[in-house]
Amino acid sequence: STVLGESYCIDWATANVTEPASFSILLTLGNINLADYPIMLGATSIDEVAGSIEMLGAPAQASTCLQDLSQPTFELTTSGPGTWANPEFVVGPGPMTIDLTGFATINFEETIVSGTFTADGSQIVDGTLDGWMDVSVIPGACTLLSCQPCPGNPSANCAAFSAQNIVYNATGFGALQAIP
After folding, report:
1. Which of 17, 104, 116, 154 has the fewest CB atoms in 10 Å of its CB?
2. 171-to-44, 52, 53, 120 alpha-carbon distances in Å
3. Mean pLDDT, rounded, of the chain
């Protein structure tokens, strides 16, 4: 498959974040531009017969689509392989981290990622990203957001996160390196 051995970088400008509803306000208050904090995806194996896919995620270096080798990768298929119906996939639930350098590290729980690889393998389109965003590290976040205890850490506050119409572009830099 042309998608194996390739890494894909999120284009946050394409993401339609529908939850939390006041997410854009939170970003504005924190003076945060998501484009400065790209995340990357890469399929590590695809089994056409079983209809399964294994996928890795990774933070990129700030404002680039180069993998940040100083940050651990996140295994989006820890709970089991994702589903693969060429060219569509769904992986998760799994953990994900976005390091908003100088502001906070945002951990996501029970993240589910889906999308469709284009025929030439140059993009993932119609992407979705759903999960629980731990907002405990953001002072006053729960005054703006609807919070509840995080599924994996009930002492932390989480807000539902949902984004659609995401496009990820092939980087041309090869596969992601797994970093523990």
Report:
1. 154
2. 15, 23, 20, 13
3. 92
